[in-house]
Amino acid sequence: xxxxxxxRFSLDRSSKKTYCPSCRQKRFxxxxxxxxxxxxxxxxxxxxREYSCGYHFTPSQYFxxxxxxxTASPMLITDEALISNTxxxxxxxxxxxxxxxxxxxxxxSFLRKLFTEDIARQLCLDYFIGSSKDGYTTxxxxxxxxxxxxxxxxxxxxxxxxxxxxxxxxxxxxxxxGDSANLEQxxxxxxxxxxxxxxxxxxxxxxxxKTAVIASVYYPEFVWLxxxxxxxxxxxxxxxxxxxxxxxxxxxxDLGAY
Length: 258
Description:
Elements: E1 9-11, E2 28-33, E3 45-47, E4 56-57, H1 59-65, E5 83-84, H2 92-100, H3 106-114, H4 117-127, E6 129-131, E7 137-142, E8 148-154, E9 169-171, H5 173-177, E10 203-206, H6 209-218, E11 223-226, H7 238-241, E12 249-252
Parallel strand pairs: 1-5, 10-11, 10-12
Antiparallel strand pairs: 1-2, 2-3, 3-4, 6-7, 7-8, 8-9
C-alpha cells in the first residue's frame, strides 16, 4: 500500500520487526520519517502483540517530550492527525467462508448442547462466529461500517465450553492480509449496534466473546459486546469507544478487574 504523501510519519510498512520496549518480544514496528526514511526514535512505534502487550508510542507523544526536535523541519508533527494511520481491513469473503463452516467449530458444539441447534446456529450467524480449517472457533470483529477488522482464534472444550488455555489465543488477521497490514481492532459484536431493533437498547460490555454470545440469549434487552480482555481491543481509546457515544453502557468486568 502506498503511503499518502501528505503524512510526514507512518508505521513502517516493511516486514522489519525489532524488540518491543515494553514486552521485549521481537514484534515492534517503528514509526518512520517519510522525508528521511529514518526511524523517529527506537521507542516510537507500536507492538503488534495487540492482545498481550498493546504498547503504542506515537510521534506526537515523542515531540511533546522533545520539543527541541521540532526545529529540524517546519513539517514536523504537531497534531495526531498528521500521522498516517490508514487502517487495513480483512476481506469479507474470508469471513464469509469461515462463518459458513460454523457447525464445525468447538464452541458451536457447546452452544448446541446449552441451547438448541437452531439457537446456536443463529448466534453464530448474528455474531459472525466461524470455524478454522482445524475446527477452532473464530471470532470475527466487524465494525459499524461493516468492515472486517480482525479475527481471533480460540480453542474450546466442545463439551464443557471452557477455553483451552494451553492452546493460547491467536489473531489471524495478518496471516490473511500480510504482516505489513495496519490492523486495528473493534468491539466484538460492534456491528450489532447498527441494527434498527438495537438502536434504543442499552449496551452491556463484557470481556469474553463467549460471555457476550451466551448472555445475549438470556438478556436480549441489551446489546452484548465484548472487549476480548481487560485491555482488549484498546477499548478505552476514543477511536474504539466512540461508537458507544450517546448510549447507556453497563460494564461487567471479570472478577478482580475494574
